[in-house]
Write a structure and sequence with these properties.
Length: 295
C-alpha cells in the first residue's frame, strides 16, 4: 500500500485543492507511480472553478481527483483572501472584506511572498516538464493525447529531440462535445482506437490535452477502462512544448501577469478572462460575505 502523505487542503468555491509546493506535488506523483497506484491529477484555475460552481458533475470530478493543485494566480489569491480575519457583523464584513480584497489584488503585483503564504502557484506545464524528466531518467512510458490539430504528435516530436531516452507516443483524440461525448460517428471510432492503443501500451503516465471541462470529463468517463498508472490533464501545454505558442517572459511570470500577456498575444479569449476576472473575484467576495454567517 502507498504511504499516506499528510496534506493541507484549500476549499475554494466548493472545490478541494491540494496546498503544497511544486516539489511536493511531483514527489507524491512519483511515489504513487513507483507504488503502482492508479490515480489522476487535475490542475484547476479560476475559470475552471467558475465552471465547477455552475456544473455539479464537473465539481464532483475535480473533487474526486487524487491530486489537485492550483494552476492560477487567482486561486492563490482567493486562498490568501479567505485566510484573512472575517468580522462577525455583516455590515462591517461588507466593508472590511472589500478592503481586504483590494489588498490581495495589489499583492499580486507587489508582494508575491505574502500572497503565496497560504498556497503556492503551481503551473501545470512546469509539472509536466519535471515528470518528463523523470520519465526519461527512469524509462517510464508516456502517452500524450491531444486534439485534431496534432498537438500531441508535435509535442512528442520536440520532446524526443530533447530527451533521447524518452519513451513517448503522441495520439490524436476525437472531437468532443462539452459533455465529453464524441461529436460524430467518426469521432467515436477515433475514440475507440485511442482507448485500445492506450490499453495496449499501458503507459506509466497519460497526459490529456483537451480543453476544460472536456478533458476532465472524458478522463472520468473512461477512468476504469483505461490502463495507466498516472493520468494528468494538461490543457494547452502541448502547444507550449511544441513551440506553437511562445512562453511568457520571465518578468511577466514574476509579476503574475501571464494571463494579460496571453490576452495581448491572442492566446487567451476575452470570454475566458471575464470568467477568471471579475466573475471569479466577485464570487469569492460573496462567498466570504455569506458562508457560515453568524448573523
Amino acid at each position: 500500500m502507498t504511504k499516506e502523505i499528510k496534506r493541507k487542503y484549500l476549499n475554494i468555491l466548493g472545490v478541494k485543492i491540494f496546498s503544497t509546493s511544486k516539489e511536493g506535488v511531483i514527489r507524491e506523483i512519483v511515489s504513487f507511480i513507483n507504488n503502482d497506484k492508479k490515480f489522476f491529477v487535475v490542475t484547476p484555475n479560476p475559470e475552471q472553478l467558475i465552471m465547477a460552481y455552475e456544473d455539479e458533475l464537473y465539481r464532483d470530478i475535480l473533487n474526486s481527483a487524487d491530486i489537485s493543485f492550483p494552476d492560477g494566480i487567482g486561486i492563490v489569491a482567493a486562498a490568501k483572501y479567505f485566510s484573512l480575519p472575517r468580522p462577525k457583523h455583516f455590515l462591517k464584513r461588507v466593508f472590511v472584506s472589500f478592503v481586504q480584497g483590494l489588498g490581495v489584488a495589489f499583492s499580486i503585483l507587489f508582494d508575491n511572498n505574502w500572497l503565496q503564504s497560504e498556497a503556492k502557484l503551481i503551473k501545470g506545464r512546469e509539472v509536466f516538464v519535471e515528470l518528463i524528466k523523470y520519465s526519461n531518467k527512469k524509462g517510464w512510458k508516456v502517452i500524450l493525447l491531444g486534439d485534431r490539430n496534432l498537438s500531441a504528435q508535435k509535442a512528442a516530436k520536440r520532446l524526443k529531440e530533447n530527451y533521447i531516452q524518452l519513451k513517448v507516443l503522441g495520439l490524436t483524440g476525437p472531437n468532443l462535445k462539452n459533455n465529453a461525448e464524441p461529436e460524430t460517428k467518426e469521432d467515436k471510432e477515433i475514440e475507440n482506437k485511442v482507448i485500445s492503443k492506450i490499453n495496449q501500451e499501458k503507459p506509466d503516465i497519460l497526459f490529456i490535452g483537451f480543453r476544460a471541462p472536456v478533458q476532465e470529463k472524458w478522463l472520468y468517463r473512461w477512468y476504469k477502462e483505461l490502463n495507466f498508472k498516472c493520468a494528468m490533464v494538461v490543457g494547452g501545454t502541448f502547444d507550449y512544448i511544441s513551440g506553437k505558442k511562445p512562453l511568457p517572459p520571465k518578468w511577466i511570470e514574476d509579476i503574475n501577469l501571464e494571463w494579460f500577456w496571453r490576452l495581448l498575444k491572442g492566446d487567451q479569449k476575452i470570454k475566458r478572462i471575464i470568467k477568471a476576472f471579475p466573475e471569479f473575484a466577485l464570487r469569492v467576495y460573496w462567498e466570504k460575505l455569506v458562508k457560515n454567517s453568524d448573523d
